Amino acid sequence: MPLTQSQRPLYEIKANLFKGLAHPVRIRILELLSAADEVSVADLQRETELEPSHLSQHLAVLRRHHLVQSERRGSHVHYRLADHRTAELLAVARELLIGILSAESERLSDTADLPALPGVRA
């Protein structure tokens, strides 16, 4: 069923949310923010070991997609999740991933019982 004109913008917004999440460093930043009320840029840099310019680019993407908010206090900038449900989304995603990896691991261990093939090393 094709999208209607009224549905399309909602799906685009949802896709943009996932674009904001589509990098391992941004996931790590969001996990760090999930563990605290707010985190300074200096602390984020120390935890991620990113160059300041790279961290800034990732934070800009997260801000653009409304996943984080920032507040300047003097010469320091602090970040927090824009919505606490982002932490819940990350937790559910982790549970889903663990389930997928567990199922894959079980399937991989099942291959140990396959008969050997001539000319193929196990």
Task: Label this structure with key terms.
122 residues; 3-stranded antiparallel sheet; 58% helix; extended
Structure description:
By secondary structure, the protein is mainly α. The chain has one domain: Arc Repressor Mutant, subunit A, CATH 1.10.10.10. Helix content is 58%, strand content 11%. The chain is built from 5 helices and 3 strands; from the N terminus they run ααβααββα. The chain has a 3-stranded antiparallel β-sheet with strand order 1-3-2. Strand 2 and strand 3 form a beta hairpin. The protein is extended. The chain starts with 7 loop residues before the first helix and ends in a 12-residue tail after the last helix. The model has no long low-confidence stretch (mean pLDDT 91).
Quick summary of this structure?
With 122 residues, the protein is mainly alpha-helical. It contains five helices and three strands, in the order H-H-E-H-H-E-E-H. Strands 1-3-2 form a three-stranded antiparallel beta sheet.
What is the total number of structural domains?
Answer: 1
Rg on CA atoms, Å:
20 Å
- Total of helices: 5
CATH architecture: Orthogonal Bundle
Mean model confidence by pLDDT = 91
Secondary-structure element pattern, one letter each: HHEHHEEH
In terms of per-residue confidence, which ranges show pLDDT below 50 for 5 or more consecutive residues? none
- In which order are the strands of the major sheet placed? 1-3-2
Largest sheet composition: 3 strands, antiparallel
Structural class based on helices, strands and sheet pairing: mainly alpha
CATH superfamily assignment?
A: Winged helix-like DNA-binding domain superfamily/Winged helix DNA-binding domain
User: First CA to last CA: what distance?
Assistant: 46 Å
CATH topology: Arc Repressor Mutant, subunit A
Total number of beta strands: 3
Report the principal-axis shape: extended
CATH uppermost class: Mainly Alpha
Helix content: 55-70%
Beta percentage is: 5-15%
